[in-house]
């Protein structure tokens, strides 16, 4: 099983949109796929029409008291399973061991028997959870809006990787919420700055078609497959798939 995180220190940059679209495209291509919604906001879970079970006690999962299989739900999409978010997981950082980074990787281990790909939708923070994500993921995809503020936050992530000995080779950038009518967006896309780690070619456009995922509670491929944004997510998936090959 390969593990791919959608991560950025900055909020609202299209992490969840990319996580949902990539996971459903992978499942559609026949790969047994698991999406783990690690953000207590639960936007990915909601988009995929799932909720955490009422009796859920996420602390028992994170502290090793309950087997992870209990948390996995089927979705309406063939080949796609989900571990939904739970608001209680906002306390996650206090449950994770401060001195270790391997809790998430250990939890993921038994899932590799059932899944070929695990997509992690991550909350926007640099925390113990982020350390666990950076340790567990084979690739950390960073959706970056072509603006100076988004690039500054990206630089902070790169510095964090360097300071804490996470391999930079895991990081991949791609442009998100890109509006080619804006000069700055065009200039940055045409000439990606050095801070952009190994950028993918796919550029996700700013488009109301993507926002409508909330209305349809589905990936864009399901309701507007000829939309340029749907095409961009297909290219992103194609690049990621090639990049994951050994
Ligand atoms: N390409 C896009 N074009 C237009 N709107 C978009 C696009 N991608 C995402 N959005 C919208 O922008 C908002 C933020 O997107 P999303 O939830 O995917 O970002 P996020 O990085 O996961 O945010 P958070 O940090 O809060 O988890 C949502 O309302 C979403 O519908
Ligand atoms: Mg999100």
UniProtKB/TrEMBL annotation:
InterPro entries with a match to the protein in the record: AAA_dom, DNA_Partitioning_ATPase, P-loop_NTPase
Annotated ranges, domain AAA: 1-161
Coiled coil: none
Name of a matching Pfam family: AAA_31
SUPFAM superfamilies membership: P-loop containing nucleoside triphosphate hydrolases
Name recorded for this polypeptide: ParA family protein
Source organism per UniProt: Stagnimonas aquatica
Lineage: Bacteria, Pseudomonadati, Pseudomonadota, Gammaproteobacteria, Nevskiales
